[in-house]
Amino acid sequence: MGWGLRPQIRIDLARQINDGPLAPFAKRRQDLLLEGSLSIYKRDWNVEGFAPSVSVTATRNSSALPLYDERRLRGRCA
User: What is the CATH number of the domain that holds 16?
Assistant: First the structure.
């Protein structure tokens, strides 16, 4: 990419299905989690093997129970 930058893209997909209903809700929990992340590392700068990076992560958890539904966007500089 040039200038010592290295991009990284990550996508995770997970599914959770519980055996039976949760007591307070009387409904079985079924979740589908989708998470994507984009990071850029400055590889030509490093301290003890660690390089600075900037990343953005988006998370979406769709659940049969509204309490566990989640949408999240996070940024991080390290």
Answer: 2.20.200
Which DSSP letter does residue 41 get? E
Confidence tier at 1 by pLDDT (50, 70, 90): low
CA angle 31/59/3 to nearest 5° reads 150
pLDDT (tens digit per residue) in 40-68? 998 888 888 888 999 999 999 999 999 99
Q: Domain span at residue 31? A: 5-77
Closest CA to 62 of 38, 26, 29: 29
Read off the DSSP letter of residue 14: E
Tokens representing 73 are: 């966007």
Total domains, the chain: 1
Contact indicator for 29, 68 with CB cutoff of 8 Å: yes
pTM: 0.79
Match 């893209």 to its residue by tokens: 9
